[in-house]
Amino acid sequence: MAFERTFSIVKPDGVARNLIGKIVARIEADGLRVAAAKMKHLSRRDAEGFYAVHKGRPFFEELVTSMSSGPVLLMVLEGDGAILKWRDIMGATNPAQAAENTMRKLYGRSIGENTVHGSDAPETARQEIAWFFPESEIYTKN
Ligand code: ADP
Ligand code: MG
Protein backbone atom coordinates (compact mmCIF):
# COMPACT_ATOMS: atom_id res chain seq x y z
CA MET A 1 0.00 0.00 0.00
CA ALA A 2 1.25 3.44 -0.86
CA PHE A 3 2.28 5.91 1.81
CA GLU A 4 -0.26 8.74 1.59
CA ARG A 5 -1.43 11.90 3.23
CA THR A 6 -5.07 12.75 3.71
CA PHE A 7 -6.91 15.68 5.17
CA SER A 8 -9.33 15.38 8.04
CA ILE A 9 -11.59 17.69 10.00
CA VAL A 10 -13.31 17.19 13.32
CA LYS A 11 -16.37 19.28 12.46
CA PRO A 12 -17.99 21.83 14.82
CA ASP A 13 -20.46 19.27 16.20
CA GLY A 14 -17.56 16.96 17.17
CA VAL A 15 -15.48 19.71 18.79
CA ALA A 16 -18.55 21.03 20.65
CA ARG A 17 -19.23 17.58 22.13
CA ASN A 18 -15.61 17.03 23.30
CA LEU A 19 -14.97 14.22 20.84
CA ILE A 20 -11.48 15.27 19.67
CA GLY A 21 -9.69 12.82 21.97
CA LYS A 22 -11.82 9.84 21.02
CA ILE A 23 -11.42 10.55 17.31
CA VAL A 24 -7.64 11.07 17.46
CA ALA A 25 -7.28 7.94 19.62
CA ARG A 26 -8.99 5.89 16.92
CA ILE A 27 -6.85 7.44 14.15
CA GLU A 28 -3.68 6.48 16.03
CA ALA A 29 -4.94 3.04 17.08
CA ASP A 30 -5.68 2.21 13.44
CA GLY A 31 -2.14 2.95 12.31
CA LEU A 32 -2.36 6.49 11.00
CA ARG A 33 -0.37 9.36 12.46
CA VAL A 34 -1.18 13.03 12.89
CA ALA A 35 1.37 14.98 10.82
CA ALA A 36 -0.21 18.42 11.30
CA ALA A 37 -3.05 19.82 13.41
CA LYS A 38 -4.63 23.13 14.30
CA MET A 39 -7.95 24.46 15.50
CA LYS A 40 -9.74 27.15 13.51
CA HIS A 41 -13.14 28.79 13.49
CA LEU A 42 -13.88 28.84 9.75
CA SER A 43 -15.51 31.93 8.32
CA ARG A 44 -18.41 31.48 5.90
CA ARG A 45 -15.98 32.35 3.12
CA ASP A 46 -13.53 29.66 4.28
CA ALA A 47 -16.32 27.08 4.33
CA GLU A 48 -17.67 28.17 0.93
CA GLY A 49 -14.20 27.92 -0.58
CA PHE A 50 -13.41 24.58 0.98
CA TYR A 51 -16.70 23.04 -0.19
CA ALA A 52 -16.82 24.89 -3.56
CA VAL A 53 -17.32 21.54 -5.32
CA HIS A 54 -20.79 21.33 -3.68
CA LYS A 55 -21.88 24.85 -4.67
CA GLY A 56 -25.36 24.70 -6.18
CA ARG A 57 -26.40 21.56 -4.28
CA PRO A 58 -29.54 21.94 -2.16
CA PHE A 59 -27.62 21.33 1.06
CA PHE A 60 -24.80 23.83 0.33
CA GLU A 61 -26.19 26.64 2.49
CA GLU A 62 -26.79 24.31 5.45
CA LEU A 63 -23.30 22.85 5.01
CA VAL A 64 -21.60 26.26 5.02
CA THR A 65 -23.63 27.40 8.04
CA SER A 66 -22.84 24.29 10.07
CA MET A 67 -19.13 24.20 9.13
CA SER A 68 -18.72 27.82 10.25
CA SER A 69 -20.82 27.46 13.41
CA GLY A 70 -17.87 26.84 15.75
CA PRO A 71 -14.20 25.84 15.82
CA VAL A 72 -12.97 22.73 14.04
CA LEU A 73 -9.82 20.61 14.34
CA LEU A 74 -7.96 20.48 11.02
CA MET A 75 -5.47 17.62 10.60
CA VAL A 76 -3.16 16.08 8.07
CA LEU A 77 -3.05 12.31 8.57
CA GLU A 78 -0.46 10.05 7.02
CA GLY A 79 0.30 6.38 6.66
CA ASP A 80 -0.13 3.44 4.29
CA GLY A 81 -3.33 3.84 2.31
CA ALA A 82 -4.29 6.81 4.50
CA ILE A 83 -7.02 8.16 2.20
CA LEU A 84 -9.16 5.01 2.09
CA LYS A 85 -8.25 4.03 5.64
CA TRP A 86 -9.57 7.31 7.06
CA ARG A 87 -12.71 7.07 4.86
CA ASP A 88 -13.28 3.57 6.30
CA ILE A 89 -12.84 4.79 9.87
CA MET A 90 -15.28 7.67 9.20
CA GLY A 91 -18.04 5.53 7.67
CA ALA A 92 -20.77 6.52 5.21
CA THR A 93 -21.78 10.16 4.79
CA ASN A 94 -25.20 9.52 6.35
CA PRO A 95 -24.71 8.27 9.93
CA ALA A 96 -27.89 6.21 9.58
CA GLN A 97 -26.14 4.17 6.87
CA ALA A 98 -22.67 4.05 8.43
CA ALA A 99 -21.16 0.70 9.48
CA GLU A 100 -20.85 -0.29 13.12
CA ASN A 101 -17.93 1.22 15.01
CA THR A 102 -17.27 3.98 12.46
CA MET A 103 -16.95 7.57 13.65
CA ARG A 104 -20.14 8.64 11.93
CA LYS A 105 -22.12 5.68 13.29
CA LEU A 106 -20.81 6.24 16.82
CA TYR A 107 -20.98 10.03 16.90
CA GLY A 108 -22.84 11.47 13.89
CA ARG A 109 -26.20 13.07 14.57
CA SER A 110 -27.43 13.59 11.01
CA ILE A 111 -26.05 13.84 7.48
CA GLY A 112 -25.40 17.53 8.10
CA GLU A 113 -23.79 16.95 11.50
CA ASN A 114 -21.70 13.90 10.71
CA THR A 115 -18.77 14.87 12.94
CA VAL A 116 -15.83 14.28 10.58
CA HIS A 117 -14.52 15.10 7.11
CA GLY A 118 -12.02 13.15 5.02
CA SER A 119 -10.56 13.59 1.54
CA ASP A 120 -11.93 11.23 -1.10
CA ALA A 121 -8.96 10.90 -3.50
CA PRO A 122 -5.26 11.79 -3.87
CA GLU A 123 -5.91 14.98 -5.84
CA THR A 124 -8.54 16.31 -3.41
CA ALA A 125 -6.28 15.37 -0.48
CA ARG A 126 -3.46 17.47 -1.97
CA GLN A 127 -5.76 20.43 -2.61
CA GLU A 128 -7.44 20.31 0.81
CA ILE A 129 -4.14 20.01 2.68
CA ALA A 130 -2.63 22.93 0.72
CA TRP A 131 -5.72 25.05 1.46
CA PHE A 132 -4.92 25.02 5.19
CA PHE A 133 -1.31 23.91 5.77
CA PRO A 134 1.95 25.17 4.27
CA GLU A 135 4.43 22.33 3.80
CA SER A 136 6.55 23.80 6.62
CA GLU A 137 3.77 22.98 9.15
CA ILE A 138 3.51 19.29 8.17
CA TYR A 139 5.74 16.92 10.17
CA THR A 140 6.15 13.83 8.05
CA LYS A 141 7.67 10.58 9.27
CA ASN A 142 8.00 7.69 6.85
P1 ADP B 1 -18.43 13.12 2.48
O1 ADP B 1 -18.24 14.10 3.62
O2 ADP B 1 -18.78 11.74 2.98
O3 ADP B 1 -17.28 13.10 1.50
P2 ADP B 1 -19.89 14.67 0.49
O4 ADP B 1 -18.56 15.12 0.00
O5 ADP B 1 -20.86 14.09 -0.50
O6 ADP B 1 -19.74 13.59 1.67
O7 ADP B 1 -20.65 15.89 1.20
C1 ADP B 1 -19.93 16.80 2.01
C2 ADP B 1 -20.71 17.04 3.28
O8 ADP B 1 -21.93 17.70 2.94
C3 ADP B 1 -21.14 15.78 4.03
O9 ADP B 1 -20.15 15.29 4.91
C4 ADP B 1 -22.39 16.24 4.76
O10 ADP B 1 -22.08 16.85 6.01
C5 ADP B 1 -22.98 17.28 3.82
N1 ADP B 1 -24.04 16.68 3.03
C6 ADP B 1 -23.91 15.84 1.97
N2 ADP B 1 -25.10 15.48 1.48
C7 ADP B 1 -26.02 16.11 2.25
C8 ADP B 1 -27.46 16.16 2.26
N3 ADP B 1 -28.18 15.47 1.38
N4 ADP B 1 -28.07 16.93 3.20
C9 ADP B 1 -27.35 17.64 4.11
N5 ADP B 1 -26.00 17.64 4.15
C10 ADP B 1 -25.34 16.88 3.24
MG1 MG C 1 -16.60 14.58 0.22
Which series of helices and strands comes N to C?
A: EHHEHHEHHEH
Question: Gyration radius, to the nearest Å?
Answer: 14 Å
What fraction strand?
Answer: 15-25%
- Indicate the percent of residues in helices: 25-40%
Q: Tell me the number of strands.
A: 4
Major β-sheet profile: 4 strands, antiparallel
Overall mean confidence score, pLDDT: 97
Placed side by side, the strands forming the largest sheet appear as 2-3-1-4
Bound molecules: adenosine-5'-diphosphate, magnesium ion
- Cα-to-Cα separation, first versus last residue: 13 Å
Q: Helical element count?
A: 7
Q: So what's the overall shape?
A: globular
Poorly predicted runs are: none
Q: Which class best fits the helix and strand makeup?
A: alpha+beta
